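Quick sanity check, Lipocalin-like protein:
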Amino acid sequence: MSRFTSLYLLAFSLLTLSACGSLEMAHPDGPTPVNPPGTPSTGGGKSKVEGTWSFVGATNYSVATSSQQGMTAVMTCSYKTVDNQGDIIFDGKNMTAKNLGYILDGSIRSVLSEGSTVLNDMTMPLGMALPPYNSSAPYKQLDDNTIYMEKGFIQDVSGMIGTESTGGAAKISWSGDTLVLTVDLAQVNAPGTKLSGSQVVKCVKK
């Protein structure tokens, strides 16, 4: 495998992480956060995420940078998910995706350079369909606004190279009856690649 190809595969695989696995760190626009339907006020306790949630969509902006033997590949990806389906279940110990599927609608820009010389710069539409799949990983609720997902939940959908996240902290917030989970992708441990940006996942209680 050429060094060009290996750099592209590593960067691209990290940009096409499953939307249900990485979450983001910004608070959503909308009304003042409230408890989801059927969830009693916690009186200052931890936010209640336990239960079954319908996956209603995700948005992503991420940049993956890989360097090798004097060459650098930078891939910038922006997308939203459409045709969303499936559930995400929190049982207090494990975060489980059941029959989760969607289509990525957006674009990806790749820039390959050697030193200060740009060798290739192109932008392509991103319309990747992720067939329904199941996944599960342990999680812990650290405080009122944060859960920590263990490794193994983030799925590589590029189909080209195996990539597994070592886990990360997701921020919890509410927008009406919608649970919003967010993660700062810079906090995701991805050996060999610098990852930045953010991703937001939204779910509604069933």
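Posting the structure with no commentary besides this: DSSP finds one helix and nine strands in the chain.
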